[in-house]
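Milestone M4 deliverable, item 7.
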Amino acid sequence: MNYPPLFLPLILLVIGCQALAADDEVLSINGCRIEADSRCPNANLRNADLSNQDMRRMNLAGADLSGANLRHARLDLANLEKANLQGANLTRASLQQSNLRLADFTDSTLIAIQGWGLFAQAAQFQGADLRAANLEFARLSGAKLHKVKLQAANLEMTWLSKADLKGASLIDANLQEVKLSGANLENADLSGTRTHYGNFQGANMQGCKACPQGWD
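Output delivered:
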């Protein structure tokens, strides 16, 4: 269609306004743009509603996400090292290959997360709800998991060496080829778990229910 010359600037102005409007639709909280590849280290996102957001590869190292709603958020390959996620809700969020080293997930909800290959060495998970979480090939060595709920979680080939799982519930979890050498399983419950080829060398099993025998 051919437009008269006088209409062309008006058409270009409308197109430009539409582009600006689309750009403005990106959620921004305290100066942090919530979008893939955004860089927001130490951002204040406390109690923010971030549900369903695309946060892949975001740099959120040291950020305060305590109490945040991250249901269904996509955090694959994100950097959350030393971030505070106490009491956050990450139900069905995707955290595949994300960096959670030294992050604090105390009392957080991570039901059915996709955490394939995530890195969470020395992270804090006390009292967290990880029921039905997929943590296959994840790295959680030295993590603190007191009284964590891991019922029906997938921990196949997960590294939990020297992790502290005191009082944890792993009922019906998949522990095939799990690495639990030197871990603390005091008063943990492994009823109904699949432990084929798991490594429990040197693990503390005092008071553990259904822990595999022969690793003393």
